[in-house]
Amino acid sequence: MSERLKFYGAAPEAVAALMGVSNYVNECGLEHALLELVKIRASQINGCANCLHMHTADARKAGETEERIYLLNAWRESLLYTPRERAALAWTEALTLLPQSGAPDADYEAVKAEFTPKEQVDLTLAISVINSWNRIAVGFRTVHPNDRKGAALKAA
After folding, report:
1. 57-81: string of b/e by CB count within 10 Å (b at 16+)?
2. CA 33, CA 60: separation in Å to the nearest integer?
3. Carboxymuconolactone decarboxylase-like domain: from which residue to which, for each copy (predicted)?
4. pTM as predicted
5. What is the C-alpha separation between 1 and 152, in angstroms, rounded?
6. Cα(139)–Cα(126) distance, rounded to whole angstroms?
7. What are the DSSP calls for 7-22, one per residue?
8. Which of 31, 40, 85, 148 has its CA 20 to 30 A from that of 126?
9. Is residue 16 exposed (0-12), middle (13-18) or buried (19+ Cβ within 10 Å)?
10. What pLDDT, in 10s, does the model give residues 70-92?
């Protein structure tokens, strides 16, 4: 795979605007661990290697366990996630797969039971932002650091 475009340099104002929203999400008061799970789960669904590389590393640095990261793709079958995390993950899947899901009432009711109205908006914004980053990274074929290292080793 080769990178299509270095989007940071092509539109720095656009990237700065999206970074501003990302910074808001990171400081909005939602738990860091929960936000990283949301970012990882959306990135799994969207097949974004760059974002998966970044957010699994960030989650580990913040103390997330390997087991919870590995089982995230099957969170519905695991007891390792809290009701609040489960509601956030269901909402993440519903909004990431919006054309298929239609954002079901059951998923919203779970979010409503676990999150205040402000937190519901912040969580929804967090899901929107990671989906935006995923689409940019996948669309422009952003190469994640491990691929860069591997290509450099092959070239040497």
Report:
1. eebeeeebeeebbeebeebeeeeeb
2. 10
3. 12-94
4. 0.90
5. 14
6. 20
7. HHHH-HHHHHHHHHHH
8. 148
9. exposed
10. 999 999 999 999 999 999 999 99
Contacts of 48 (CB under 8 A, 6+ apart): 133, 134, 137, 138
- In this structure, what token pair is assigned to residue 51? 């974002």
Q: How far apart are CA 42 and CA 98, in angstroms?
A: 12
The token pair at 132 is 């935006």
pLDDT, tens only, 10-64: 899 999 999 999 999 999 999 999 999 999 999 999 999 999 999 999 999 999 9
Provide the residue type at 125 as one letter: L
Give the pLDDT confidence of 89-123 residue by residue, as tens digits.
Answer: 999 999 999 999 999 999 999 999 999 999 999 99
CA distance linking residue 125 with residue 122, whole number of Å: 5
Q: What are 6's two structure tokens?
A: 């270095």
Q: Based on the number of CB atoms within 10 Å of its own CB, is 25 exposed (0-12), middle (13-18) or buried (19 or more)?
A: buried
